[in-house]
Fold each of these.
Amino acid sequence: MERLGEKYQSVEAFGWAARDSSGHLSPFVFSRRETGEEEVRVKVLYCGVCHSDLHCLKNEWHSSIYPLVPGHEIVGEVAEIGRKVSKFSIGDKIGVGCIVDSCRACESCREDQENYCTKSVATYNGVHYDGTVNYGGYSDHIVVDECYAVKIPHTLPLASAAPLLCAGISMYSPMKYFGLAGQGKHIGIVGLGGLGHIGVRFAKAFGSKVTVVSSTAGKSKDALENFGADGFLVSTNEDQMQAAMGTMDGIIDTVSASHPILPLVGLLKPNGKLVLLGATEKPFDLHAFSLILGRKSIAGSAIGGIKETQEMINFAAEHGIKAEIETISMEYVNTAMDRLAKGDVRYRFVIDIANTLAVTRS
Ligand code: NAP
Ligand code: ZN
């Protein structure tokens, strides 16, 4: 059945899609809409591989729409602009993150927190207001309203800037909102993966003291020497965890799989906050007393608004913050997904779309 709006999808596009919950990606020809008056067409140059891509490919959140073209850490170049576009010119370097539209009228939208608009439209695996399903950045181009894209400062290297569009803003926003950024604050970052390692760099740039809590002892050198953390705890080492009890003002938990959070609550000082970012499937096991004694709180946070995303990108450019990446070809993406599932990535895969996608089209 033709979806409403599909007749406007007249521009051919090419990417890689999964057809089912095996998550296996392969070449996929589809179409995108004409560039609207307030929209830009972006030639995708690089796209980061977020763990959320993997969750969606495998339908771990039970909401995947196939065929599914993932990718919401997009850096590209403006290739075409609509008549009313004022923010971008052709050739500008541009970033597109996790959302491409929102209602623009609700309280969240009015407060520049489109990420909490209940009608926001996801960059992929979301249904646009015209009824079409969105396809993400593992593709040659994407069309987006200029209000939902950000400028990439020319001092940022493009490939390692891509992960900032999701991983970067997802760490930056809660640090600021929950008051964990700044001198005199001790922040714990749980899980040293794509989100976690960028989080360490932001927290250090804010002047906070940072302790990484990791399940992988072998990441200690990277955490302390490459990313600048002040401390490193192995989450399974009871002596280390015990010694750090009650020392942290806040913790950002980025772990992508089910794990105990009670020991993390124990690491907090009175009034401390545990912010959950990892979108794990199973509910957590928690005793009320662990929060009551110490007036502690547990919260969640989802990416950030577009204005804050631009602020974060500018801050990253100013402070020289970038992701630690392994650049891969499109052809390698299924192997990369297997490695990501096993935690075998230091610390973000980024697909070189511009140089490696087209050759996979036979
Ligand atoms: P990632 O690169 O795979 O990193 C996750 C890290 O979690 C791993 O490097 C590992 O770090 C740790 N980990 C994984 N499995 C574990 C286990 N069984 N027990 C303990 N630790 C484990 O993933 P990511 O891209 O950073 O994303 C992390 C999570 O955040 C995902 O669930 C993703 O969907 C979610 N996410 C949320 C938002 C948001 O706005 N809320 C935005 C983007 C992504 P160690 O080796 O150091 O333990
Ligand atoms: Zn993401």
Note: The pocket of zinc ion (ligand 2) is lined by residues 50, 52, 72, 98, 166 (CB under 6 Å).
Amino acid sequence: MEFKRHILITGGAGFIGSHVVRLFVNKYPEYHIINLDRLTYAGNLANLKDIENQPNYTFVKADICDYEKMQEIMQQYRVDGIIHLAAESHVDRSIKDPFTFARTNVMGTLSLLQAAKVYWESLPEKYEGKRFYHISTDEVYGALKMTHPEGIQPPFTTTASSETHHLAYGEEFFLETTKYNPHSPYSASKASSDHFVRAFHDTYGMPTIVTNCSNNYGPYQFPEKLIPLFINNIRHRKPLPVYGKGENVRDWLYVEDHARAIDIIFHHGKIAETYNIGGFNEWKNIDIIKVVIKTVDRLLGRKEGEDMDLITYVTDRPGHDMRYAIDSTKLQRELGWEPSLQFEEGIEKTVRWYLDNQEWMDNVTSGDYQKYYENMYKNR
Ligand code: NAD
Ligand code: TYD
């Protein structure tokens, strides 16, 4: 079959990437979707079992830092669109091992950019019809002040529809024009990669787009991140390590809403633009944790709230950003995207998924799947 487009999705075996790959493979049978992933601890092909045999799907195990391999892949698959999600993504790991973050997030992104540039510039039509879409985070903007610890109701300075707003813990939001001010090695590496992507547009005319999204939650998230880690710990009645006072605020978006935004922006976003993606859904960590405890207890048939005593306050994360809050008005106004799920519904779906997929959780927490992949790819 002759495909209409050849789209390379990097990091497709990870949390958000697997939702993006699934959406594109199912929605666009006329596109060839090439999922390129190194399968680090965070990459898991079991996340894509339901689509792995689709005729428009190909998996390639490769490291984005391997520049020659990236050049080879561009040519072999005649790639005309790239959605770049591959990254080291966990702040706590970046504090322990910043080099790995600089390697993958900065050098890896640069290697992918350069491979795309060399390939696309070698074609008669050059950059026409091409797109390099880089997925970034709101963490590059740094931290907002928590001027209203009790929370304030809409309307705020943002012009997005007020029904989509939850409480806000300050008047300021991250805009596309907010100055970069990263604090963690993770966010510093993502900021650096964002700059490289924009530099490739400004210098070489590469058709790039960058989006900065808030915290995602939902199925297939590696259980080092707050929500899946805590769901699993509550189930096994293990302590819940709350950093500092649990007062830090994050803006949470259901992962399928992010994948849907990526689809819209990939197809209709303006070249060289930045779009912020977020749910207007700010929560203090401790409040989220209470909702998660109650939901897990209820779904497991325990007394609602009986696991509250698992909450254990521990030493704060160094450089812990106080508040993130995205203003996604531009995306809503220009491209018509809005989050589809209210948080209560999303968290219920999420908790239910982790409880129903205990095997997935046991697998990724036991390390067996790592060994499986090591054996499987040992000779390649
Ligand atoms: P994840 O850690 O779950 O997945 C990352 C994927 O990248 C894994 O499959 C991993 O194997 C792969 N990978 C890592 N290094 C690689 C390399 N050198 N070569 C090829 N593949 C490699 O991450 P995620 O949470 O799905 O995040 C995906 C992207 O979205 C990242 O760029 C992240 O910065 C960004 N983001 C994440 C969030 C969030 O809340 N999770 C929010 C905003 C933006
Ligand atoms: P996390 O899921 O690591 O995402 P990020 O740091 O990228 O926002 O953490 C979400 C919030 O939860 C963050 O403020 C740190 C906090 N947290 C804890 O309190 N305990 C934990 O064990 C983890 C993993 C996170």
Note: The pocket of nicotinamide-adenine-dinucleotide (ligand 1) is lined by residues 10-11, 13-17, 37-40, 42-43, 63-65, 85-89, 104, 108, 135, 137, 190, 213, 215-216, 222 (CB under 6 Å).
